[in-house]
Amino acid sequence: MRDYSISLLKGDIFGGLTAGVVALPLALAFGVASGAGAAAGLYGAIVLGLVAAFLGGTRVQISGPTGPMTVVFASALAAFGGSFEMALAVVLVGGILQIGLGLLKTGGLVRYIPYPVISGFMSGIGVIIILLQTAPLMGAPASASPLEAILKFPVSLSLLNLHAIGIGLLTLAIVFLTPIRISRFIPSPLLALVLCTLISVALDLNLPIIGEIPTGLPEFHLPTFTLSQWSLIFSLGLTLALLGSIDSLLTSIVADSVTQTRHQPNRELIGQGIGNILCSFVGGLPGAGATMRTVVNINSGGKTRVSGVIHSLFLLTLLLGLAPLAAQIPLAVLAGILIKVGIDILDYRLLKLLKQAPRPESLIMASVFALTVLVDLVMAVGVGVVLAMGLLTWRVAKEADITFDTSNSRYPYLDKANPGTRIVHVKGPLFFGSTSHMLDRIETVDKVVGTQQIIFDCRKVDFLDLTAIFTLDDMVARLHQRKIRPKVVATQEIRQQLLQMNTPNLTESIIFADMKEAME
Which stretches make up the STAS domain (predicted)? Predict the structure, then answer.
């Protein structure tokens, strides 16, 4: 801040105010969609946005409630029977875990999450938002889960409110069709919010509205939980922590690409964690770095942390002075804005390439998508990562080449000098995924009549893991029992690794660094 100038302040003011204008309708909509109320969305945007701006690792990032975090919080609220304090305990645990992830310096690991998992999860979140907002768009009560929304769609259709669907469709038309030259000056969500609310009030339409929003500063809340619910609170908190961390760090990467700077990922996680912890004490919605609001801030001139602070102060001013006006906003308008958010979250890049994409990656994406929408967010991410790891293991295991030369053609003099000697050639990675292949080869060698000695040629092995070492040790023991002499030829590095493990059968007497020495 030593070189902070008037020109930077001007850019930060414009960037922060513009980001605040974009954040206002989204914060209200996310608050209502979560079941905690519009005020919770504003509290979350103000507190998290302010704390993350000061303490986060990305200078121009704008933080606040996001679609995925709102879905998890709504799931927590429903899981605990509407207990707001227990849902806030989930937010508290999530914030603590985020700080822990930052202190453990795991911020850089987001780059290693497979793209099909992220794509399936984000597209699933987009579909969840769309499904949950379909009923409010028609003037019917919102459902607690996407599966319930699907099953209750006929009921929602029977409760169709023509005024609500009309205002909702008008909202969708505005957010989708507003020309860019207009949205540069006033974001289309804000334009839809103002125009459709004014029309509803002027025509005195009969449709559900937000209702009273508390004015003034938020009250202190004390998150509570019971030991019987602790496992569920922890799992949902872990979901919030992982999802918020991924969301924030991906937004940080986007900000880096636009501003040509580098963020501090671990500091970003700590800042987001502290912000979410404070949100749990003021009754605010949890959040993360918001990509759209961050890009709007940058494009509007924001260059330092001051822009994020101004964004939060702007929303605080609105909360203190204009909350009564927001009470008249129709729920159908917020539903239309959120449906646009859900559609934007869908990963069109991969959806367009599903036919050309490798089939295993497409199946992983589809599995994560289906589990996200129909089952559980935690399970979706867990299953997706496990499937991706399994696919990677299978592909790496295929690189292992384990062959048995029955004629010893590579060493034509071997039968004369060492009758009964067989050589198993091992090449590539030798780990838990490829050891079964080696066991199959040993079974083949055992069946060769006259086998007296087996040499494992591991000079072209890239790496060994603990499973491979123990498997090799067990095979050596079995060969000893069958009166067959085992020997291992390996590079100096692999030889040292085998000896360091100090296994009972892989001793220095049978491990060699040279093939001729082993044959002697």
Answer: 419-520
